[in-house]
Amino acid sequence: MDRETALSSIKANVENDNLIKHMLATEAIMRALARRLGGDEEEWALAGLLHDIDVELTEEAPETHGKLGSDLARELGASEAVCRAILCHNEVHGVPCDTTMSRALFCTDPLTGLITAAALVRPDKKLEGVSVESLMKRFKEKRFAAGAKRENIATCEQIGLELKEFISLGLEAMKRIAPELGL
For the chain, how many helices (H) and strands (E)? Predict the structure, then answer.
């Protein structure tokens, strides 16, 4: 399975531009994590890109989010490792994140929300002026980007990264694709 196939399927299943941008941001961070941790860049990036492909399809039954996404990814030809990472990123299924890639997706998913929110509160609404230091402060503010589960982000330690290093890697990855993200 390649990126173009994944993007075509996303365009067919996802209407919300902000959700697509979140998926692109997750893809970028997952690619950077694979590079840093010695994973397969294309496979990790696909897991990030496809992880929320089913969000709009599961709005009426959010407990199925991740399960349907995993099934869709499998139909597209994604590896079982990618499908499992997509499945376990939604805690409701009780499927443990037992690979480095799945753990990486689990902590990356909410990080994109924290970083995006930090950009959007800036007057220019751009990532360029967002710093690791400001993100570390915002991380401690539980009401800021409240949907970005801090406890999930903090599981970055399970993949061998300290929080500050993980946030820095994520911010730099998102800055590299800032025009695509509109940030």
Answer: 10, 0
Tell me what the pLDDT averaged over the chain comes to: 97
Cα separation, 31 vs 121, whole angstroms: 26
Q: Mind listing the pLDDT tens digit for each residue in 13-47?
A: 999 999 999 999 999 999 999 999 999 999 999 99
Note the CATH architecture for domain 3-181: Orthogonal Bundle (1.10)
Closest to 167 (Cα-Cα) out of 72, 29, 11, 47? 29
Taken as a whole, the chain contains a residue count of 183
Residue position matching structure tokens 């999930």 = 152
What whole-number distance in Å separates Cα of residue 135 and Cα of residue 43? 28
The dihedral sign for the CA sequence 70, 178, 18, 145: positive
How far is the C-alpha of 82 from the C-alpha of 17, rounded, in Å? Answer: 23
Q: Domain residue spans in the chain?
A: 3-181
